[in-house]
Design a protein that fits this description.
By secondary structure, the chain is α+β, with helices and mostly antiparallel strands. The protein has 18 helices and 9 strands.
């Protein structure tokens, strides 16, 4: 790499995101993305793969793969894809630095007067990100750069006028450090508070496809919490139906959590539908996979973690819900230390225990009765179950072959998923057996449980991984 600024920005991305990121040897989807990057695949194919990994909870692995490859063969379009994902709450400061580095590339300079080129795209990204961060004057300069190329650029015009309003308006007392990170709250809400000044926001903890999680301090009761906020996206008319479904699912998570009582399930503390967020108990130790990487958890912890996860599932099922997405990324560790308790999280896919329509979750942890109907990812190389289809205007009408006799998620399928997680813990640092990453459901998962697990967990784990759902138990 010949550009020092770009190399510095990419090394900063790798330094911050590598811990806890899935590696190509650990996940087939990340390996597929690495191959696509090495082969110089078009942006649309790379972006589709990144989106697929993001939906499965492997966004860090995807971005680390892109950043590593871009240090070898930088491409402006892929660098901007990486910068956009970083600016979308995961690491906005790194995203802005990367976008600035893109502007110094010859490809950006060559596209200066082309509306669809990297020069315009980088300036637009910087303008919107800086405006969201509260730096209206810096944002204004980037919106002006876009408008110099395309005078009637809609997004740049809206950003330009928003920056003017914020720069010209008298400053009001800030309701709290980081509150501007709650994208979508306008200036009146920020000035008046409307109850949101209760929380002093800190750093982002992570993001999914539709939500961002921040660390925060609850001034009212004097404790630290996690704020999970639904991301507001610019959507066209055809996708508004999907946005409503996503919003309904987001607040259905709150209703589910309100029914569950367990020390091993994240607690719901507050719901703010107007501002599109919920407040949850804070877990400082990251997720189960991160804790395993840090050697805070290992095979010797199987009895304790297994008992806690089983207790969480009993509470969820007793509340009449099915989680539908049990995996290490959705199991949090309370504190960043050895022997810290776990807490089951992310109930965004949870539904009633009478049977949750359609498959959902991640293929590696999917029960065999759901696995047979799981679609393969868009490239055919990523064996991962997608979310159950939502009724959007963009979706073609499904045929009867795809909708009839669709298997449903049940408490038994949750138990199987938890069993796979615990088997992964029991085998750490080794990998899960390969059949778990294949769509085929004709393998005996229970037979893959090793003998001699501590405290009699071999038969217990085999019961959780039984092929017959009726034979599974906690």
């Amino acid at each position: 790499m010949h550009d020092p600024a770009l190399d510095l920005a990419l090394r900063a991305v790798l330094a911050r995101l590598s811990e806890g990121a899935a590696l190509p040897r650990e996940h087939a989807g990340v390996a597929a993305l690495t191959r696509l990057l090495a082969e110089g695949a078009p942006l649309r194919i790379v972006e589709a793969q990144v989106r697929e990994l993001s939906r499965g909870g492997y966004l860090r692995g995807a971005l680390v793969s892109v950043a590593g490859q871009q240090r070898l063969r930088p491409r402006a379009d892929l660098l901007l894809l990486l910068a956009h994902e970083l600016c979308d709450a995961l690491a906005p400061d790194l995203g802005c630095e990367l976008a600035r580095a893109v502007l110094s590339l010859p490809a950006a300079a060559a596209s200066r007067w082309h509306p669809g080129g990297p020069y315009v795209a980088a300036n637009l990204l910087l303008g919107e990100s800086l405006l969201e961060a509260g730096d209206a004057l810096a944002a204004l300069r980037h919106f002006e750069a876009v408008l110099a190329v395309e005078l009637d650029h809609g997004r740049a015009l809206r950003g330009y006028h928003a920056a003017l309003r914020r720069g010209a308006a008298p400053r009001v007392a800030s309701p709290g450090r980081g509150l501007g990170l709650l994208a979508g709250l306008d200036e009146v809400e920020l000035a008046e508070g409307l109850g949101v000044d209760r929380y002093e926001l800190g750093r982002p903890l992570g993001r999914g496809r539709h939500a961002v999680v921040y660390q925060a301090f609850d001034r009212r009761v004097g404790r630290e919490v996690a704020i999970k906020r639904l991301v507001a996206e610019n959507r066209d008319d055809a996708a508004r139906g999907e946005a409503r479904v996503i919003g309904a699912r987001f607040f259905a998570e709150a209703r589910t959590l309100a029914r569950v009582r367990s020390p091993h399930v994240v607690a719901l503390l507050d719901v703010q539908p107007t501002h599109r967020f919920i407040a949850l108990s804070l877990c400082r130790g990251g997720n189960l996979r991160v804790a395993m990487r840090r050697r805070l958890l290992g095979p010797a912890d199987l009895p304790r973690v297994g008992a806690e996860l089983q207790a969480a599932l009993r509470a969820v099922h007793a509340a009449g819900a099915v989680h539908r997405d049990i995996k290490p990324a959705n199991i949090l560790v309370r504190e960043a230390r050895e022997a810290s308790p776990i807490a089951l999280a992310d109930f965004g896919l949870a539904q009633g225990s009478r049977g949750a329509g359609g498959h959902a979750g991640t293929l590696r942890y999917l029960a065999p009765e759901l696995r047979s109907a799981a679609p393969v990812g868009p490239l055919g190389q990523v064996p991962r179950a997608s979310l159950a289809p939502s009724p959007t205007a963009n979706s073609a009408a499904p045929t009867s072959a795809t909708t009839s006799a669709r298997p449903t998620a049940t408490p038994a399928s949750d138990i199987f998923s938890a069993g796979v997680v615990l088997l992964e813990l029991a085998l750490a640092p080794g990998p899960l057996p390969a059949p778990f990453d294949h769509v085929a459901s004709d393998f005996d998962a229970a037979a893959l449980v090793p003998e001699g697990l501590p405290d009699g967990w071999t038969p217990r784990l085999r019961a959780m991984l039984a092929q017959d759902p009726d034979a599974r138990g906690l």
